[in-house]
Specification:
Elements: H1 15-31, H2 37-56, E1 65-68, E2 73-78, E3 81-84, H3 91-111, E4 119-123, H4 144-162, E5 169-173, H5 181-186
Parallel strand pairs: 4-5
Antiparallel strand pairs: 1-2, 2-3
Helix pairs in contact: 2-3, 3-4
């Protein structure tokens, strides 16, 4: 996001603030007489996250997967030790673990009736499989393995929102257009058709 001068605003490091909030929450949990409550919750969340990672077929998902609240990241506990998200390699892994994590957390918030908005917005999760100059005209054909990975991503999204106990709306802005009927049924707008776009042309002011 740019400011009025066309420059990016400085990034504020809130690590210390967030760590203090986590410590305060942990202290309150202990005062309530169940010091293992947070650990129990995180174990259940980690199990769901691991199952989604396996469903997506991303690297390291053969090992237990968990959220590390101290470092605010995803961690795989492998035979050789803990591997955090930044050490997991490819863009496909990054996208896969982000999708799995957000879906897992929203599932938790919904099933536990937590006061979190029941909406998740994702912008082009397919971008790791498409070239940067992709025009969205259908000219780029994905290799079979990449296409299967993308299909699995949307299958996991659809499976999550189809759960009767998960009241969640997922909005995805995407240039990939899969041929599967269940995908087509979920598409609401194809803005590249007939000159339409996410940002209407009459909203744009020319100098």
């Amino acid at each position: 996001m740019l400011d009025r001068r066309g420059q990016q605003p400085p990034i504020q490091d809130r690590t210390a603030e967030i760590e203090a909030e986590i410590a305060e929450i942990e202290a309150r949990l202990e005062e309530n007489g169940n010091p293992d409550l947070l650990s129990s919750f995180m174990a259940r969340i980690g199990q769901n996250l691991w199952e989604k990672a396996q469903r997506l077929g991303i690297e390291h998902s053969a090992w237990p997967i968990r959220l590390d609240l101290r470092r605010l990241t995803v961690v795989a506990d492998t035979r050789n030790g803990a591997v955090p998200l930044h050490g997991m390699g490819s863009g496909e892994n990054y996208v896969g673990y982000h999708v799995a994590t957000f879906l897992t957390l929203h599932e938790w918030f919904a099933t536990e009736d937590r006061p979190v908005p029941r909406i998740l917005i994702m912008d082009q999760p397919s971008q790791v499989w498409f070239p940067s100059d992709y025009a969205g005209d259908g000219s780029h054909v994905l290799p079979d393995d990449d296409r299967e990975a993308l299909v699995r991503t949307y299958q996991v999204v659809m499976e999550t929102i189809a759960r009767p106990d998960v009241d969640l709306q997922v909005i995805v802005m995407e240039h990939a257009d899969l041929e599967e009927q269940w995908f087509s049924d979920a598409v609401r707008y194809r803005w590249r058709a007939d000159g339409e776009a996410l940002i209407p042309a009459d909203w744009i002011e020319e100098d």
